[in-house]
Design brief:
Blueprint lengths: L1 H5 L5 H15 L5 E3 L2 H4 L14 E9 L3 H12 L5 E4 L8 H4 L11 H4 L3 H4 L10 H14 L6 E2 L4 E7 L4 E6 L4 E9 L8 E3 L10 E4 L5 H4 L14 E5 L3 H13 L2 E6 L5 E2 L8 H6 L4 H13 L12 H39 L3 H6 L12 E2 L3 H4 L5 E5 L7 E2 L3 E4 L2 E4 L2 E4 L9 H5 L2 E3 L6 H4 L18 E3 L11 H21 L2 E6 L1 H12 L2 H10 L13 H6 L6 H13 L5 E5 L2
Parallel strand pairs: 2-3, 2-7, 3-4, 5-19, 7-20, 9-18, 10-11, 10-18, 11-14, 12-13
Antiparallel strand pairs: 1-8, 5-6, 6-7, 15-16, 16-17, 21-22
Helix pairs in contact: 4-18
Amino acid sequence: MLEDLEKLDFDPEALRERYRQEREIRLGAARYQAAPDNFVRDPYRDESFTRAPITRDLDVLVIGGGFGGLLLGAHLQKQGVGDFCIVDVAGDFGGAWYWNRYPGAACDIEAYIYMPLLEEAGEIPSQKFIGQPALFAHSQAIGRRFGLYEKALFLTKVTEVRWTPQQHRWAVRTDRGDLLMARFVCMSIGPVHQPKLPRLPGLETFKGHTFHTARWDYGYTGGSFDEPLVNLADKRVGIVGSAATAVQCVAPLAESAEHLYVFQRTPATVDARNNRDTDPQWAASLEPGWQARRALNFDLLTAGRPVAEDEVQDGRTQMYLDLQKAADAGGREARELADLKNMERIRRRIGEIVRDPEVAEALKPYYHQTCKRPCFQDGYLETFNRSNVTLVHTKGRGVEQVTERGVVAGGREYELDCLIFATGFEMLSDFTDRAGFQTLGRDGLSIRDRWKDGVVTLHSFYTSGFPNCLFLHNAQGPAALNATFVLEAQSKHFARLIRHCLDQKVVEFEPSAEGEQGWLAEVLSFAEAKRAFAQVCTPGYLSSEGDDSLRAIQDNFYGGGSPAFFKHLSDWWDGGMPGLRMTRQA
């Protein structure tokens, strides 16, 4: 490995300087706003649905019906906890895969490890990487298998969650007039359901049609997930964004639109996905427990932990293997050189695929590959060889404004019939804003005020002043490329804790100040490494948009990786659950 790195055909110092310049351009350029109501309305809901208000007393209320809520429901059932309800504003289970139905939508983690509970469902995905329809259908299948539909309230928005100390219950109110009293509340809100928009002057003046990719308007575009968007044949379409979502939906848009303008702030790293059908012989050879072992293998490998072999064998695992081999052989400097070398390969590949040299150069990313979520997609780069596609590279600054007729970028107005935003989600915003409801703990304290100086938790799950409340969120929790691996482990933990409380007649649990401060110290012990990462990376959600303050580090992912995080949880159980005070029934 070291010998290969010594044979570099590029100047590392020149690349470091180019990376620094690209980062400087982006700093401060990311300004977002909450999406207006017309961008977040549910285009798939049954507007005629009505029901009478419900008043119920429950053991557990789960807010959110994505994979987190589904896994919580499944593991509660396995623990023999059947008195629970799942509430979701959506019209069905699925979470991200209910909302994100844009053409080409797919998970970029292989389906064999991403789709949870495959063995229990007796299901094998048809391809290594699977699209939204299959992921949505799998969510529904989990709901049916574990009897969760009978416990679900869909098309129901939570409006307030309030602790009632006399009853040791959470009073949960909804826009349907429901009053649900629950001993335990599990917040499975998820990070990729609430669209965010760039803060653009004039957005409300645009006379054409506009929507966010997470609320795709097939009524306007025509077609479906895998059928031509026939209504765009005579339309000039603009899409703002060039990250993971745009990389998937740009090709279908280009195939249907009269002309497509792609407004790019910073190019994504786009490597080959090489999707393929599932080999029936391989599927038949799988032994019990295969999915858990394979998912753990991927998690360890991508966290830099040693594994005997790469079971997943895709572009993502190869990238992490190469980086780790370099680090093992030569330390941090060798790892950086391996990253520079791989990014040079990606940039050369872009130049080989995209015929126009100027367009190819604009599509080349100049930052370390792990600064942003790497994309693996076939067909995206080829799209820019089409005569009806224009890349508008804003060189890190983004679109300047929206007018009645279109979009202004680089001082030029582009007239559009349709403007689509592929600008991501409210992953780093205040929890209350993202959830869309107030959570009020002891003495009416809101979670917004509790965390106004920074998130304070024990293991990211519990916070003092909010007894019997469990949070399934990013802040101070484990970061893992395969989100469902983390959700599976967290859901098992929640279900086990609730079972323990019911068995031991625990009426309240709440973290102690010592427990919270201990976990905060653990989170901040990675501040130096996370600050170094933020200071060299082009801004994005992984680097808190370039914010290297202690507050940003405190409010973002736990920096020790998921293997270390779950080792903490295992030790916590073995050590008698320190830091969590429990009050038993008198």
